[in-house]
Amino acid sequence: MKFILTLFIGILTLNLNAQTDDEQTVIFSRIGELSDEQLNNSGTSKLTFVTDKKEAEKMAELDIENGNPFLLLMGGIAPTIIATDPQFEKKYGIYFYEFGCTGPDNEIIIAYNKIVFEYLNKTHGKNWIKEVRDDVIGFKEWEKNNK
After folding, report:
1. Are 79 and 98 in contact, with CB atoms under 8 Å apart?
2. Is 69 exposed, middle or buried (0-12, 13-18, 19+ CB in 10 A)?
3. Model confidence over 67-78: pLDDT tens digits?
């Protein structure tokens, strides 16, 4: 009887805490807008196998050409999500992509991101610099060299 009562209270609590129709769903990233095919064909999915910085730069250029540029991050076990990420992604037409614990060499990520930084500068001026995440790989060094 105690088990049934506990189960009933648990279900009741779950229902009371469930999201109602008038509550807004929080979206953490625009990456969900991409199809599996777009994501699988992007440079980001192939960077782990790249050993040459020029090849990483070409992949970034191709992603830009295809309308799917990414800013690459390295994370840990759980991704770091910042509340302003979706607004930044939408405003500047990019996607944040976090590799997690393992991923390409830092030099490969920096080469890719450098091309995307230059693209953002070319298309949006320097406004994006004040809004971009500080943990984008290679950003601080790029910013220092491009002041």
Report:
1. yes
2. buried
3. 999 999 988 777
